[in-house]
Specification:
The protein is α/β, with parallel strands linked by helices. It has 2 domains: about 5-25 and about 95-225, Rossmann fold (3-Layer(aba) Sandwich), CATH 3.40.50; about 25-95. The protein has helices spanning about 5-10, 25-40, 45-50, 55-65, 75-90, 100-110, 125-135, 155-165, 180-185, 200-205, 215-225; strands at about 10-15, 115-120, 140-145, 170-175, 190-195, 210-215. A 6-stranded parallel beta sheet has the order 3-2-1-4-5-6, sandwiched between helices.
């Protein structure tokens, strides 16, 4: 990974949450399956839920619902509302980062990088999980899904960069999915994929990933020479 030129200009780092900072799939799957059971739908394995995440809660629920109900927007909204209630109870079951990730992120913040989180997960849970996973002075901004466009649209990443006081090219976007790779490219940010999350390295490469870290140490070394 020839990162010396890229690292020299980076002042801020935006991290995806699910599959990048923490393995949230069990807590998500628990809420999904409580929801599916409530409506009499088939439940799903953690692997199935893992493949369904990445494009926001509505798309997650739509992917987990059976046809033809999944094509009925009103039914999807009704099921999504119940899922929100269930995830409000289960999200706290995610109480730690992947091994080595918390320490790496803290090291980056202590080294002078501004650190933010941007996820397609619902906003309230992104903010709450940021407080669970990291000390209060480490994450400058934690942003989830609101009424603004979700990743890979560049609107919110660019807003975060502006709030952090950096230009897009001075910001890196780190994530485990094809959506994150596309987000970095669409926002004109430095891209770094991680291979320990919900998507394979092959998926990242197919999406146009130029740099991929296989360990938190490699991620740290990408930014700190």
């Amino acid at each position: 990974m020839d990162n010396s030129l890229k690292a020299q200009k980076i002042k801020a780092i935006i991290f995806d949450l699910d599959g990048t900072l923490a393995d949230t799939v069990e807590a998500i799957a628990e809420a999904v399956n409580l929801t599916m059971e409530h409506f009499g739908y088939k439940t799903h394995s953690c692997d199935e839920v893992r493949r369904a995440v990445g494009n926001g809660a509505r798309m997650l629920i739509k992917r987990c619902m059976p046809e033809p109900d999944s094509f009925d927007d009103e039914k999807v909204s009704h099921v999504l509302s119940h899922y929100d209630d269930m995830y409000r109870q289960t999200y706290i079951h995610t109480d730690r980062c992947y091994d080595g990730v918390r320490e790496a992120v803290i090291k980056l913040a202590e080294s002078g990088f501004k650190v933010a989180i941007l996820s397609n997960k619902q906003n309230e849970y992104v903010k709450a999980l940021a407080k669970i996973l990291f000390p209060s002075d480490i994450i400058s901004i934690a942003q989830g899904q609101t009424d603004l466009p979700i990743k890979p649209d560049p609107t919110v990443p660019l807003m975060i960069a502006e709030r952090l006081g950096v230009r897009p090219e001075e910001c890196a976007f780190v994530g485990d999915s094809d959506v994150d790779v596309m987000t970095a490219h669409s926002a004109g940010m430095v891209q770094l994929g991680v291979s320990w999350g919900f998507r394979s390295k092959e998926v990242l490469l197919s999406a146009g990933a130029t740099d991929i870290a296989d360990t938190p140490e490699q991620m740290l070394n990408f930014f700190i020479q």
